[in-house]
Amino acid sequence: MKYVPDATADQKFESDNTVDRVTVPGLLSELDEYAVEQSLQLKEKNADPESVTVTALTIGPDQAADAIRKALQMGADKGVHVVDDAVAGSDAPATSKVLAAAIEKLKGDGGVDVVVCGLGSTDGAMSVVPAMLAERLDLPQITLASVVESQGDQFRIKRDGDTATEVIGATAPLVLSVTDQSGEARYPSFKGIMAAKKKPLDTWSLSDLGVDASEVGLDAAWTAVESTEARPPRTAGEIVTDEDGSGATALVEFLASKKFI
Predict the structure, then answer these.
(1) Predicted model pTM
(2) How many CB atoms lie within 10 A of CB 106?
(3) pLDDT tens digits for 88-107?
């Protein structure tokens, strides 16, 4: 899951055109809350819920721990926070590399059956990290699920397209991503908020994961933002009157000039 700048706050960029993730207030990406919810549901539906551990994993600055705490308050069992200055400016390939290394490290703690991701981040909105994770981990992927069904290690999802709905199945271990149609994310209860304070939250660096700093960060990125500019202020709208019966014609001409029709 990802710690992202609050969409209601004033967004800023650093001098190198990377997103300011330190001084701008941030939070757990709303789209990733659905991934947390589906993870918790998988645990609750398991025949032995106590045997299942839901781990919330994120990469980001110190403040990104807030996103993990939100997941712990929702019901996740433990958190892992990858913090390293060298990660700043990483693009999707580098992000997937670090996440995959962290998941491999978690495997040593007892194995990982399902990696659950959100639809995409609300800041980058690329939606490619789940597929990259599956490739790096050599796992099958079932992505963009609006409905998730499971029985044992068998999973089946529904993926809604523009003209049809696909039903896709796979056997765990696997990588799964879910959309905002998969089920409303729960709100942390008071009990959950208090319980989260006692749950483990591990902090790892790149050296803990065996990832070379030269392979991540802005200098290693395959993509870069060349320039940014502020969105222009909203202008007053154009009012179409119909005093002489020409309103419909004027409206059509306006829409046609903007290429809306």
Answers:
(1) 0.84
(2) 19
(3) 889 999 999 999 999 999 98
